[in-house]
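A quick aside before the break. I want you to see a complete sequence-to-structure record at least once, exactly as it would be stored in a machine-readable document. Don't worry about memorizing anything.
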Amino acid sequence: MNNESERELRQRLQNLEAEINSSSVPEYQVHKIPNTDRSKFTSTNVHVGRIVQWFKGLSKPVQVIVCGVGFLASLTILQAVFKLVTAAISLAILAVLLYLGYKFVISKSLSGKQ
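That is the input. The structure line, written in tokens, reads:
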């Protein structure tokens, strides 16, 4: 009896192995990893390397001037971003106030006339 159950288990195992080997994996279950384009990273590194070499080739006073101009440019850009954010917040507050004014003042006066 033990021999018979062992034979049956082996047969089931062979059937399962054959089923696994014969069945193909559906396309949606296959996860393909796309190749990352390393040329983008190397291109960026090349440009950064060129800028660093150009900066190192400058004399000390010119390096100080370039750093100062870069600092002023970054402050100007940061100031512009802050002004845009402030304007967006102001517009949002104005929109809320206009909506509330309409809701409580004009809406009530229209319903009072009816």
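Two observations worth writing down. The two ends are 94 Å apart (CA to CA). DSSP finds three helices and no strands in the chain. We'll return to this after the break.
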